[in-house]
Specification:
The protein is an alpha/beta fold and 79 residues long. The chain has three helices and four strands; from the N terminus they run E-H-E-E-H-E-H.
């Protein structure tokens, strides 16, 4: 799974990146057609949202929605 983060998240980016790495989730810096999710926190970057809307396969989700996906598909993320 490939994701892009935008906005302020509830956890530090370092902690999130370590957990993502452990689960095999790749964090990309920019939105492209290879990205699965754009995860939005508080005050997300509008350019990333605009870019994500240009790709039909990129799902735009909130951090809370993404955490529910992680709970279901990557329970080891929450360890």
């Amino acid at each position: 799974m490939k994701i892009v983060l935008t906005g302020k998240m509830t956890q530090t980016r370092d902690k999130m990146y370590n957990n993502f790495d452990r689960c095999g989730i790749t964090v990309m810096k920019a939105v492209s057609g290879r990205v699965d999710y754009l995860v939005t926190g508080e005050r997300p970057g509008q350019s990333k949202i605009y870019d994500a809307k240009g790709y039909t396969d990129v799902q735009i989700v909130t951090e809370e929605q993404f955490n529910k996906i992680l709970e279901k598909d990557y329970p080891e993320y929450l360890l």
